[in-house]
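Sequence only, no structure available. Ideas?
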Amino acid sequence: MKAFTADTFFNGRIHVKQNRSGYRFSIDAVLLACHARSYSGSKILDLGTGCGIIPLMLAYCNPKVKIYGIEVQEKLADIASLNVKENHMEDQIAILCKDMKEITQDMISGPADLIVSNPPYRKAESGRLNLDQQRAVARHEIKVTLYDVVETARRILRTSGRFIVIYPSERITDMLTQMRSASIEPKFLRMIYSGLYTESKLILVEGVKGGRSGAKIGPPLIIYNKNGSYTDEVKEMCGLSTVNMFKT
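Reply:
I predicted one. C-alpha cells follow.
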C-alpha cells in the first residue's frame, strides 16, 4: 500500500500528497484558502499548515506573493515541503518546522499582511483524544491553544493586516473574544452549513489588526446538495477535480 494519497485542484494544476493514514486535511482548510485568496497581500503566514494545502492554493491564485507555512509536527512539515517542491513553488512558499509561539517577524523578513489558520478545534480536555498522535495534535489544543494562535497573529501581523480563521460555530464566542482582546477586530463572519436544513458547524471569521468596530455577516455557505454532491458554489470556489476527496 502506498504511504500517500494524491488529490488535485484547479483542474489538475495543483497536486497535493498527504498521508494515507494519520492526519489528513478536510474541506475546512480548502474553504479557508478559497476565502483568503481574495485578500492576498504580499506576505502570507499559514499557522498550522499540515501538508501545505492552504499555501499551495494561495500561491496558485496569487503567483506574486510570498507564503510561509508554519508546522510544528516534523513529519507533516516534510510532506508540506515535498508538496511545495513537486508543484514547483519553492520561490513562493517556505515551510518552517517551528512552534508558532516561537515565530518572530524577523524569521519571515518583517510583518505579515495576511495570516490564516485552521487551528485545533477542541480543548485538550474535551472529547476523546485520537489514538493517532498526529491527528490528536491537529484536532485538540495539545501543543497550541486558541490563545496561542490569536496571539501569534497579533504579534506577527502589520497594523491593518488581516487574520482569517475557520472554527467551530459552537466556539464563536471564544474566537471573537480572543480576537478583540488581541486588538484584532472581527470584521466579517460567514456561517458554514453541511446542508440546507442543518445547523451551522463551522464559521469563517476575518479580522483586522487595529481595525474599527463594525462587522458584516456574509450569506450562508452550503457545502452539500441533498444528494450528497458538492454545491455549485463549493465546486466553483475550490476548483475541485476530485469531488469525493473529503468523504470518510
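Residues 134-138, 241-248 have pLDDT under 50 and may be disordered.
Hope that gets you unstuck.
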